Amino acid sequence: MRSVRARASLGATLVVAVALIAAGLAVLAVLRGNLTDRAGLEAEVAAREVAGQIALGVPYADLDLGDEDTHPVQVTDEEGRVVAASEDLEAVTGTGAAGVVPAPSAPVPSPGDDDDDHDDDDDPARSQVSSGTPDFANGTATVDGERGDYRFAAVEVTTARDVTLTVHAGAPLAAEQEAVDTVRTAMLTGLPLMLLVVAGVTWLVTRRALRPVEGIRRELSAITASEDLGRRVPEPDSRDEIARLARTTNETLAVLEASVDRQRRFVADASHELRSPIASLRTQLEVGEAHPELLDVPGAVADTVRLQVLAADLLLLARLDAGERPGSAAVDLGALVREEVSQRAGDRIVPEVSVADTGALEVTGSRGQLARVVGNLLDNAERHAERSVAVSVRAEGGGVLVEVTDDGGGVPETERERVFERFVRLDDARSRDDGGAGLGLAIARDVATRHGGTLTVAAAPGGGARFTLRLPVPPGTDSGRG
Length: 482
What we know:
About 50% of the residues lie in helices and about 20% in strands. By secondary structure, the chain is α+β, with helices and mostly antiparallel strands.
């Protein structure tokens, strides 16, 4: 069964069927028990009435055995012999004695007993009916040719002559059987109808509940066919799981759309950035081939270096987008900053370095990627600075801070987030050769984020821009206070 509606309807129907069958059996058991107990109570009353007559010394032949059609009576002695029975009782089972005719040898009291015997009959200590709970048993009795089921009650009685007799009186179970049969028939008739109603209602409710899911499926299928990630699935007005599913699906589609758009822009921008140096290099080589004396070797080398740097940046961004995790090596940021600054001894501006001596300056990550971050920040500062660039490293607030400050024109407040986007250059008037491809800061922020840190830009106290790189220190390391 591949349909959720079919499985839900079948499951609900089975659960209701089991519950109804269990409840029906319980109801039948309780009903049968109650009716049987009532029949037993009637049988006990009839048996005690006969036992009371025996206790009063009424001769067996003169016993009033009541209505023998509804309460057949059988009286037996200690040896199981029948001493009295209903007149029309033809057969009986369930009383322990099958006889229905009084035995000739049974002791029969008579009104002609001597005075002592009469005194004994009046002695309540010698003549009494058992006050305990009688024994009950189910059996059958044939009365006047009709056989039926009965509930028998057995009551013991002791006569004045110290003879213990047992009075068996029955009450018919026909009413109990008829009531149980009626209820059972009603249940068997109503159960299929109830199950059909449950199955139908469950089918309709499930269909209505899953209708939004089908709408989501159709829209996703259409999006897949059209490859239009700008479309969205319908969101129901309810606040249930399906509505949350629709909202999550739309959020996922939005993220995918943004990712695809970013990828498309990345490819377009990368193609555009690669086109210039490749075209320039090709032109120089073609000119050099035709006129070797005009070959600009330094320009060709510069274009080749630019291509190499751009290709390395693009490869690093591709690895970061693919989810490459940073390494787990211990990196001393103070030493790393000094090393990167030392490689710029011949640059236009040599950065001033300030490394704090207190607190741990080690972080965990990829030394190569972190060196790329520091190098990109230094390159950006040198490109925009007028006279000076300053770098400081210190431990602060459970992390290590690297601040790169320049005295250039700074970054406008409205552009301080956009500057970290890929292929974004705020100085559009600057030539591509001098201004770079606009990937340095984007790479720096991506690497910082993947190392669990942050990279922000703000205005420097003396003017210019201040880029702040914050990286967490390994757990258990005392970073100190800056």
